[in-house]
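Shape is hard to put into words, and the shape of a protein is harder than most. The fold becomes a row of whole numbers, each drawn from a learned catalogue of backbone shapes. The outcome of that step, for a single protein, is printed below.
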Amino acid sequence: MRRIVSENTFDQTLDVKGQKCPKPMLKTKKALAKMEPGQTLLVLATDPHAVRDLSQFADQTGNKMLSSCENDGIYEILMQRKSES
């Protein structure tokens, strides 16, 4: 399985494998809220809608989706908490 990021390029991991919409998005929102501005979160999900949902969430909140890919049914989504303005 090829990963989109090495283990040294993100600050935290959130495993939401096996959870369906809207739980991956809600848990990502909660995790990002606890992080410092600019920190990164690797979300591991099996729900195929997670990529779309987290992309929309990022657009609406000012957070960023840095990258995403699917490997063997697991979606790896790299999110970044928005910077303070």
In short: The mean pLDDT is 92. The chain is about 25% helix and 30% strand. The two ends are 38 Å apart (CA to CA). Residues 25 and 54 are 6 Å apart (CA to CA).
